Amino acid sequence: MLPVMLDLRGKRVLVVGGGAVGRRKALSAFSAGAAVRVVALESLHEEFAAHVSIEWIQANYHADHLQGMCLVFAAATPAVNDRVALDAIRRGVWVNSASDPTAGDFTLPAVVRRGELTLAASTGGAAPALARRIREKLEREFDEHLATWIRLLEMIRPTVRESIADPELRRALLDDFADWPWLERLKAEGEDATRRLMEQRIRAAAL
Asked: Which of 56, 75, 100, 140 has the fewest CB atoms within 10 Å, counting from its CB?
């Protein structure tokens, strides 16, 4: 398996199946910016009422539903998923099968998002329950303070680049700000105090 991050903005994604798994896949793809079509025997689910841009087709799956799609999630019954996977592979469309990970081209990792940071754990479909437990462990260890720290690093980086002429000193300072003690300081003292201290370090380094 090759771990990748896909930019789905503006891409067309098909989800076959309107159960809990299919709805979760559809919302994930939609959140990533994809144009999502759901083909399902189930009627439009209430949680999709607010997502009018998600196309919900209540019908039996047909291979024509793959037309124009760049990515497919097969989340129906195993028999339907097998058909979807076979049709998609024949057309060169990337497909994920919820019932048989080996039938498709890719599997989805268990994901933790903290601001701009994405942490992913995958067992290649061999043990999804273990991947979920690893995700839960990461969620506990890396809370929302991590997102704040990343935001601080993003804000402070231009200041370092503008204030420090020496490239080696710039690199060393940015590396220091990205070290774990700063996360502990952020948790203990808060965002504003941590940013002020970073700015003090920059001014001292610029002298």
From this structure: 140
Sign, CA dihedral 108-28-38-48, equals positive
DSSP character for 108? Answer: P
Read off the DSSP letter of residue 109: P
Question: For the chain, which residues make up each domain, given as ranges?
Answer: 12-108, 145-206
- Output the pLDDT for position 93: 97
Distance CA 55, CA 68 (A): 14
Please tell me the distance from the alpha carbon of residue 118 to that of residue 64, in angstroms, as a whole number: 34
Residue 40 bridge partners (DSSP): 58
- Report which DSSP code applies to 125: T
3: helix, coil or strand?
Answer: coil
- Over the stretch 14-55, which tens digit does the pLDDT of each residue have? 999 999 999 999 999 998 999 999 999 998 888 777 777 899
Burial 83-93 (b: 16+ CB within 10 A, else e): bbbebbeeeeb
The correct answer on CATH 3.40.50.720 for the domain covering 12-108 is: yes
Q: How far apart are CA 97 and CA 106, in angstroms?
A: 8
Contact 16, 22 (CB under 8 A): yes
